[in-house]
Design a protein that fits this description.
This protein is an alpha/beta fold and 387 residues long. The protein is 28% helix and 22% strand. It has eleven helices and 20 strands. It has helices spanning 50-59, 72-78, 98-109, 125-134, 161-169, 175-178, 201-217, 236-249, 271-277, 303-310, 369-380; strands spanning 10-12, 18-20, 24-28, 44-45, 48-49, 64-69, 87-91, 113-117, 140-145, 148-149, 153-156, 184-189, 224-229, 254-258, 282-286, 291-295, 316-320, 329-332, 351-353, 363-364. Strands 3, 6, 7, 8, 9, 10, 11 and 12 form an eight-stranded mixed sheet that branches. Strand 6 (64-69), helix 2 and strand 7 form a beta-alpha-beta unit. The longest helix has 17 residues, at 201-217. The protein is elongated and about 85 Å long.
């Protein structure tokens, strides 16, 4: 397993603030399920156990993932199959509490960690990203909902380790005892859903009810649209080539649409081309992996029409062009260009991709497309369809 460098050094965030790098996700799965009466890690929701769901969730977010347990046998009982080879198992040196799991993880991994309880039912990517963004100039970043702290959905830095060891030596096993002794940033949330965990049979009934409601409500709706604009040779298409895989890696189905003065996707002499030449108002060409549809029109289709007809089940459509129709815009500024050559005023653009100061509050360069993808997901509020 490749571990990150032992650093909590800050890196600049999109807004210019210092954010500590968090590259490790740790699943805390060492509990004994006393109130549930059976191993809650093995409870299956939508076809996967809670521990499987949350491991997959962390692996989608962090390059390094570990799971903290009392012993390996405890984990094997909750898994429906083999543990991914990239996930490290951390057997608690001081079992009996999440605080002991944090001590083992911080000792072994030597880096800031995002800790998630294995019994959380509806882990949410945007909630995690919000907590990660808050982790700077602090030892702990954690959510607070209605005055209630959520310490099992939080970031812990290496500076916590000496205090945790002292608490454990004194027989104190509550994470809440740690917080007054270290630098803490609380992140307010209005909804407790991302932190809903399963402790009792009643909680499990509620989790299954919510999961059923989610499936019923998750019929694909219209996609979100984001225009990517810029002057000629500003590398708009280069950005899309980098951005699409990042968005796909965040679980989104991505479509694209490009505005152009004229185009032809068919070839003279092909049978399908002959269909059109003969006067067919519309024709389609299909193969096992692709489908093309050509229609003769007397006007340009709007984004809403394109969404209704061609993008069912797509989460986000990236547009080259359509600056006036798309609700949000990102501008790409080519090398050597400056603020005097912008198409969109900085205050009207969601962000800019540029290597010069353009006056945009949120500016990224081409090497920051992973951060740009997360920023887009967070600001547009898009989420993958799961139905």
């Amino acid at each position: 397993m490749t571990r990150p460098e032992p650093t909590g050094a800050p890196e600049p965030g999109p807004d210019g603030s210092a954010r500590a790098r968090v590259a490790v996700g740790v699943l805390l799965a060492g509990g004994e399920s006393r109130r549930m009466g059976r191993d809650k890690r093995a409870l299956r929701l939508n076809g996967a156990s809670l521990v499987e769901r949350n491991l997959a969730f962390l692996r989608s977010l962090f390059p390094t993932v570990a799971v903290s347990v009392r012993d390996r046998a405890q984990l094997d009982e909750a898994l429906g199959g083999p543990l991914p080879a990239s996930v490290e198992v951390l057997c608690d040196e001081r079992p009996g509490s999440p605080l002991g799991g944090l001590a083992t993880a911080l000792t072994r991994l030597r880096a800031p960690i995002f800790a998630l309880a294995a019994d959380i039912a509806f882990a949410d990517r945007a909630a995690v990203e919000t907590v990660l963004e808050a982790f700077h100039d602090s030892d702990v970043a954690l959510p607070v909902v209605g005055g209630h702290l959520e310490p099992l959905h939080a970031v812990y830095g290496p500076g916590c380790l000496p205090v945790i060891r002292t608490l454990l030596d004194d027989g104190r096993h509550s994470i809440l005892d740690l917080l007054p002794e270290v630098r803490v940033v609380t992140v307010p949330f209005t909804s407790s859903r991302p932190f809903f965990n399963v402790n009792t049979p009643g909680d499990w009934d509620e989790a299954r009810r919510r999961a059923d409601d989610d499936q019923a409500a998750d019929a694909p709706g219209p996609p979100a649209f984001l225009a990517v604009v810029g002057r000629s040779r500003s590398a708009r298409t280069d950005l899309l080539e980098l951005l699409i895989p990042e968005l796909k890696g965040l679980g989104l189905r991505v479509g694209t649409v490009m505005r152009t003065a004229d185009f032809d996707i068919d070839y003279p002499g092909k049978d399908s081309w002959r269909h059109g030449q003969a006067g067919a108002a519309a024709y389609a060409v299909g193969s096992p992996t692709q489908l093309a549809y050509v229609e003769t029109t007397d006007r340009e289709a709007s984004l809403d029409e394109l969404a209704d007809r061609f993008f069912p089940g797509i989460d986000l459509v990236l547009c080259e062009g359509f600056r006036e129709e798309a609700p949000q815009v990102i501008e790409v500024v080519g090398p050597g260009s400056g603020a005097d050559e912008l198409i969109v005023p900085p205050a009207e653009a969601l962000a800019a991709v540029a290597d010069v100061d353009t006056g945009h509050r949120h500016r990224f360069d081409f090497a920051e497309t992973p951060a740009l993808a997360r920023f887009i997901v967070r600001r547009l509020g898009v989420a993958p369809h799961t139905g």
